[in-house]
Amino acid sequence: MYLPATDAETYRIITGDDGYEDVMEKIDYLKSEEKKVIINVPIQTDMIDLLPDIHALAIQKKCGLLFHYCPQEAFAKDQIELINRYRHIPNVQVFQNHFPDAQYCVGYVDAVVHDKKQILRNWFEKVITSFYSLLDHREHKR
Questions:
Q1: CA atoms within 13 A on the CB side of 11
Q2: Would the pTM of this model clear 0.70, i.e. be above it?
Q3: Neighbour-count burial for 24-57, b at 16+ CB within 10 Å, e otherwise
Q4: How does pLDDT run across 60-75, given as a tens digit for each residue?
Q5: Rounded Cα distance, 104 and 87, in Å
């Protein structure tokens, strides 16, 4: 579900649409029907500060989170570091879009479908992160 903001005003500024409340209602409905919901967020340099709030909303709504960005965009080093931190968080996937000149729909992330190397890397990072979390949990029990 495309949701680039956590409030109606910012959603309207980013999308040009007043549909924030509709999206939130759809998420709530799908979750009430016990459906898996993934929040889809295309990351741009001017909205990087929204990522922590979007992540908090995904946790609150018990949704997965899909961040994707174009590495050719002029991200600062600290912005890339922030994006990369999300790679190690459960229920969050981060993909790079390598098609900056192609027309694309923010609701369809081409890299998720076609970039097998990236899909495998994301899966491997999640397995390793889960493994270390399990080890940490066991250490705390002792």
A1: 16
A2: yes
A3: beebeeeeeeeeebbbbbbbeeebbebbeebbeb
A4: 999 999 998 888 888 9
A5: 23
